[in-house]
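Design request, tokens follow.
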């Protein structure tokens, strides 16, 4: 498996990943859910979202990383400086944590056939290194706390991944939130890179 920044060279593979049935909600949101205001997202369409993400890929910096296996995309992680994500910046349910402005790791897509192979964990590790290379002072994620939900969560709620996955990668709990995904509470996990 190779993990590369989203670019014009990886666009076709990424677009194929998002369009596939196993790509989950990505075929509708194209990883723009967190990037644009709720009212703008509500009036957008999948094709408009696709073109907007293509524009981000073409103009840079990369809006995420693509996991490739034999040239075919099997995973994705969306990330960037937190101010690039309007929905998080304006959120009333996800608090801002004191400290330097972090990069945000907002969503993961892993194809059905690649699940259980550590793709999401590899993408998280690569996202941390990518942010470190961009001299980010810290990175944040907004995963769900499956244990707090009694061990149950819907598949669609897990696109942000889990608190335990972030803990294994060295992140610490920075804050609880009043946000939920798939029936599980969302938390703010943070890793200082300084």
């Amino acid at each position: 498996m190779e993990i590369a920044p989203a670019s014009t060279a990886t666009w076709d593979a990424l677009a194929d990943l998002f369009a596939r049935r196993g790509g989950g909600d990505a075929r509708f949101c194209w990883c723009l859910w967190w990037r644009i205001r709720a009212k703008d997202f509500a009036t957008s369409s999948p094709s408009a979202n696709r073109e907007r993400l293509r524009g981000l890929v073409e103009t840079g910096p990369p809006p995420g990383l693509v996991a490739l296996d034999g040239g075919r995309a099997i995973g994705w992680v969306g990330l960037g400086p937190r101010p690039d994500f309007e929905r998080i910046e304006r959120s009333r349910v996800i608090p801002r944590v004191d400290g330097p402005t972090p990069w945000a790791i907002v969503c993961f897509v892993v194809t059905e056939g690649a699940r259980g192979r550590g793709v999401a964990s590899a993408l998280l590790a690569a996202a941390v290194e990518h942010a470190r290379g961009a001299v980010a002072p810290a990175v944040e994620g907004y995963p769900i706390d499956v244990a707090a939900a009694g061990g149950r969560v819907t598949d669609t709620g897990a696109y942000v991944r889990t608190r335990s996955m972030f803990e294994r990668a060295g992140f610490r709990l920075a804050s609880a939130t009043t946000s939920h995904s798939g029936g599980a509470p969302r938390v703010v996990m943070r890793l200082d890179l300084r």
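Comment from the thread starter after seeing the answer: thanks! The chain has seven helices and seven strands.
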